[in-house]
Amino acid sequence: xxxxxxxxxxxxxxxxxxxxxxxxxxxxxxxxxxxxxxxxxxxxxxxxxxxxxxxxxxxxxxxxxxxxxxxxxxxxxxxxxxxxxxxxxxxxx
Length: 93
What we know:
This protein has 93 residues and is mostly helical. Helices cover 69% and strands 9% of the residues.
């Protein structure tokens, strides 16, 4: 599992459509589908119910999305803090 795959999952869940998510992410739809399948295999569960009209989250997918969103938010915060330290905007020495 890596941050990119988590971002793919989050974007797909929010879009409700793999093709739309792929377009938004700037990746090919087959590549996104494979990444999502690998994530499900790694977790040993189905996160997304796929249909012609799009995707919906399973109950497991909803729970996982909560934690993915929290984790990605924390990573964004960490990036901001590190950048601030690099430019002497936060922290003390």
